[in-house]
């Protein structure tokens, strides 16, 4: 009897922490495999943007706002046009009348996050950017906790720590290989820009998760295309007209711009699908491997020095990502509306069965008396 009580208490503790030992079939499901694969597709798209950016930088082209503008313009042409053809409450005019300022804030956060992180390369080192850019994950978890009412288990915090260890291994490999690129002109300013970028990315990602899960992917992308094009277009005119005028256009430069814009368009179009399946936090964990894909490409294209730590880093980040998705998060909902309560997970059912067993044992004991 004492052994049963001890096993029951241990089971409850494991469930509360999210560390309950599920069967492998319950963990390694098709849904998890699909989530992992989709996350790596997003990382490969980011790798495509990084490689094209590197080639543009080598050609003396530094126009981050022009590159962002092309991406937002593609979103505008496709998704905003779809919103224009809709009727009723889903039409773009109705959306602008009721929620324009929310999408303006979302678009502003996304545009400035992209600009700030690119600008940071002029002031601080690659190592600092890789490390501080991970700040987006705790900020995203914090915003999700308060704004989306997402609740995490202990295993999720462990998984995030594992992923960050993988990033540490990647940065260590960069230092060993002498890839501490960038500038040290104003490290404090550069590091500050990275942190600002991380916070803005977190705001944009939380808005994205809320929109795609409660409204629609088309509405999110249409509004991002509209406000992103307006904001980035204004900044392009103010900040980059001389730089754009200095570009020596040829077929190679045009192709690099096209590759960058198409990769970003595919990333923005595909990311809401993965966010809806998982969460913005899970997606950002999967994107930690993007730098590794860029490094692997750099081994062949830019003759980077190979390190075994890159492989170790990739494995560790992937393990952390699987851990995060193996145990489901849940949403805190008002207790006074039973209809809105989320469906029971396996862990909730375990707790319920334990409670029922205890109730049955109490009834049996009373009947015996």
What would your notes on this structure say?
The chain is an all-alpha fold and 369 residues long. The chain is built from 16 helices and 2 strands. The chain has helices at residues 2-17, 24-27, 30-58, 64-85, 92-120, 126-132, 136-147, 154-176, 187-214, 217-239, 241-245, 251-277, 280-286, 290-301, 308-326, 346-368; strands at residues 150-151, 330-331. It has a two-stranded antiparallel sheet. Helix 5 (92-120) runs antiparallel to helix 9 (187-214).
Annotate the secondary structure layout.
Layout: H1 2-17, H2 24-27, H3 30-58, H4 64-85, H5 92-120, H6 126-132, H7 136-147, E1 150-151, H8 154-176, H9 187-214, H10 217-239, H11 241-245, H12 251-277, H13 280-286, H14 290-301, H15 308-326, E2 330-331, H16 346-368
Antiparallel strand pairs: 1-2
Helix pairs in contact: 1-16, 3-12, 3-14, 4-5, 4-10, 4-12, 5-9, 5-10, 7-9, 7-13, 8-15, 9-10, 9-12, 12-13
Search tags:
1% strand; 2 strands
């Amino acid at each position: 009897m004492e052994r049963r009580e001890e096993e029951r208490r241990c089971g409850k503790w494991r469930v509360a922490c999210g560390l309950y030992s599920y069967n492998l079939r319950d963990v390694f499901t098709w849904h998890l495999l699909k989530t992992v694969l989709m996350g790596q597709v997003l990382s490969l798209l980011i790798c495509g943007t990084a490689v094209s950016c590197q080639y543009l930088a080598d050609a003396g082209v530094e126009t981050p706002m022009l590159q962002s503008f092309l991406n937002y313009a593609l979103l505008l042409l496709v998704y905003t046009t779809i919103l224009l053809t809709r009727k009723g409450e889903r039409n773009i005019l109705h959306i602008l009348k009721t929620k324009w300022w929310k999408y303006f804030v979302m678009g502003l956060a996304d545009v400035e996050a992209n600009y700030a992180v690119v600008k940071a390369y002029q002031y601080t080192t690659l190592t600092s950017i890789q490390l501080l850019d991970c700040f987006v994950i705790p900020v995203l978890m914090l915003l999700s906790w308060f704004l989306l009412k997402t609740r995490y288990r202990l295993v999720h915090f462990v998984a995030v720590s594992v992923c960050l260890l993988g990033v540490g291994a990647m940065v260590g490999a960069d230092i060993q290989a002498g890839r501490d690129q960038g500038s040290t002109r104003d490290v404090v300013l550069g590091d500050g820009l990275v942190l600002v970028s991380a916070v803005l990315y977190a705001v944009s990602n939380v808005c994205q998760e809320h929109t795609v899960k409660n409204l629609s992917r088309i509405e999110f992308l249409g509004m991002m295309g509209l406000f992103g094009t307006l904001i980035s277009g204004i900044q392009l005119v103010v900040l980059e007209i001389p730089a754009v005028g200095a570009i020596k256009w040829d077929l190679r430069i045009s192709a690099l711009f096209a590759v960058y814009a198409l990769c970003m368009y595919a990333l923005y179009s595909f990311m809401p699908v993965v966010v809806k399946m998982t969460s913005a936090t899970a997606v950002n964990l999967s994107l930690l491997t993007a730098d590794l894909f860029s490094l692997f490409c750099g081994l062949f294209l830019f003759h980077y020095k190979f390190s075994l730590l890159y492989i170790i880093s990739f494995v560790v980040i992937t393990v952390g990502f699987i851990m995060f998705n193996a145990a489901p998060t849940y949403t805190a909902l008002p207790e006074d509306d039973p209809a809105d309560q989320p469906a029971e997970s396996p862990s909730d059912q375990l707790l319920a069965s334990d409670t029922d067993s205890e109730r049955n044992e109490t009834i049996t004991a009373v009947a015996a008396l």
